[in-house]
Amino acid sequence: MQSLKGRRKVVPTSTGAGIDSAEKLDELLISSAICNGEDLGPFVRKTFGTGKPETLLHHLKFFARSKESEIEEVCKAHYQDFIHAVDDLKSLLSDVESLKSALSDSNSKLQSVAAPLLSSLDSLVEAQTVSKNIDLAIGAVTHCVRVMELVSRANQHLQSGNFYMALKCVDSIESDFMEKTPSSTLKRMLEDRIPAIRSYVERKVMQEFGDWLVEIRVVSRNLGQLAIGEASAARQREEELRIKQKQAEEQSRLSLRDCVYALNEEEDDEFGSGLESSDGGSSGGGLLGFDLTPLYRAYHIQQTLSLEDSFKQYYFENRKLQLTTDFQVSSITPFLESHQTFFAQIAGFFIVEDRVLRTGGGLISKLEVESLWDIAVNMMCVVLEEQFSRMQTANHLLLIKDYVSLLGVSLRRYGYAVDSLLEVLSKHRDKYHELLLSDCRKQITEALSADKFEQMLMKKEYEYSMNVLSFQLQTSDIVPAFPYIAPFSTTVPDCCRIVRSFIEDSVSFMSHGGQLDFYDVVKKYLDRLLGEVLEEALLKLISTSVHGVSQAMQVAANMAVFERACDFFFRHAAQLSGVPMRMAERGRRHFPLTKSQNAAEDTLSGMLKKKIDGFMTLIENVNWTSDDTPQDGNEYMNEVLMFLETLVSTAQQILPTKVLKRVLRDVLAHISEKIVGTLCGDLVKRLSMAAIKGLDVDIQLLDSFTEKLTPMLTDKEAKEMKKAFIEIRQMINLLLSSHPENFINPVIRERSYNTLDHRKVAAVSEKFRDPSDSIFGTFGARGARQNPKNKSLDALIKRLKDVS
């Protein structure tokens, strides 16, 4: 062993002097390789390569013989040590025997003493084992009892529908007791039933959630109707408050200090109070049964089951599907009948979503609600565009517009943007007004066609209030005695009601549509109604249905009343549009029915002129060459004056003074023209001085007639009235003057004869000259010869002929 441990490299020594140097070297190399434990493969290959294996065998045998002596010496050294060791062992043999006997004795004594102790120890170990087993059994039973208690509690929660607590019990069993359960049977039962319980709970809550999805649609519709109803009530309160405020302002403007108005403002918080009470909590039943408990319980259970994300997606997709289904408009039921339910469903849908967003604990995000709202707005715009394009009745369009605006008011308070909806409504403003104008055209045509051209009789005060005061048509603040005969016919209040309804409908459409200042729009369409629809109808009525003086007079009287009514229309439009009266007065235009008013007055004047023409035919009976001057005027003038006096007495009861003055002035001018035309015409061949003086009497009678009108005329108006027959007056003054040739003087002509035409003067002057005189003739058998005047008249005629 020592030789193995002490192995080292051995350098071989040289042996055998008889070996040559080459073989000696090979031998040394082989010996050295063997001693050092190197590989002999190279030597073997070399030997067999030279074909001399005997040399290698020789070297190996020589090396073996050289090591035999060394081995023998080592064996001898080890053998001596072994002999010495054996001797030492033999010397110890006696001691071992004595020790063995001592140990045997001690063992016997120990066995005799320890036998009872070993028996007691075995009993103790057995008792400890039994006790340990009992403790384990008690622990296992206790563990199982706790598990069963949790199982029993979970069953009770399941039976009572308290799924969350049931799941908490199941989670506790799974996390705290499952792995430690000693009973394999119980453990297998738990492993089998826990997934089943979770699956059962999931099915139940999803079933409740599905029922809630069905019920919430009905609730949403009722909730939307309530919200829109609250918005409508709030709008009504605002309108009432605005009316009271305007009444107070009007009273204040009239300085009626004894009239005190208390404006009880409604609190804004009243709006939607019913809604808040109905969804004040996540599980409140509220006014409409707005209960989100099934939804939140399902969401909570899904969170407990670690299915939160999938439930969120499921909820969003189902609500989106419901929203899309709500937009399916029935083709059987007219949209006018179903639009309230349609929009109420949408309003309720987003009121519910707003509540879920604020109280749902992240069930739905704001972006998801906004995406649903964008979908709803786009689809509502499409539906409105389609339905509005089909509607041909203005009232139907207004009803839907009002309900949509109430929808916008209801949802704006929840933070939803409704500008797109309002833009759609504003886009159809022109179509609505066109339909409204068309409806009003039909109504006005019917009202005018039903007119009997008779003054309206009002027997009761309420009739006066409804037909006069409501349109501010009265000319005095004093209420007349009843029965009262109005100066206008039934057409006026009927048309006023149509126009007022148009204004209110127009304002109703324009208001609550996002545009604050819409008076200009209302005024534009009001101008169209008055200037196009009403005036065209009146012009048609005047041109086709007026067949007598009384009818024409009634129409003219109606037009005067319409002038006051138009002032009321624009004030009413400004008041409803919230525009101050001073601004409305500042922007007021001229009377929009001027054409029809002029047509009515022209028609009346034309008919009166025809009447006058009938009386003026009596002028043919005048003896223009008579030497006698009629002291009471000619017959034709007396007939004309009787007609004019009757006309004035009748017209004063109907026509306003300004209209009567215009008509009379036109008639008087026509009388003047007829007389002048007669003098210039072929009917009169020659004029005598007496005939001219008779015409002077006729004109004086006309002057007297105009002077009788002084109570209703100012001095300026009286002068204007006399100017109506200024032509015939100047013609008579010229013929009666001593120097007719003064007509040639531009200054005198401009001052005294500015209305006379020189051709007419020349024609009448020729007839006024006496044909029996070579120069002028005489002015009558009784008249003395007036050479200066004749010369002047002859000079005038000559000068006028030169001018011609």
UniProtKB/TrEMBL annotation:
Exocyst complex subunit EXOC6/Sec15 C-terminal domain boundaries: 420-767
Main localisation: cytoplasm
Highest taxon listed in the record's lineage: Eukaryota
GO cellular component: cytosol; exocyst
GO annotation, biological process: acceptance of pollen; pollen germination; pollen tube growth; vesicle tethering involved in exocytosis
Cross-referenced Pfam families: EXOC6_Sec15_N, Sec15_C
Cellular localization per UniProt: Cytoplasm, Cytosol
Ranges for domain Exocyst complex component EXOC6/Sec15 N-terminal: 59-228
Keywords tagged on the record: Cytoplasm, Exocytosis, Transport
Keyword Transport: yes
Function summary: Component of the exocyst complex involved in the docking of exocytic vesicles with fusion sites on the plasma membrane during regulated or polarized secretion. Involved in polarized cell growth and organ morphogenesis. During cytokinesis, involved in cell plate initiation, cell plate maturation and formation of new primary cell wall.
Family: Belongs to the SEC15 family.
Annotated protein name in UniProt: Exocyst complex component
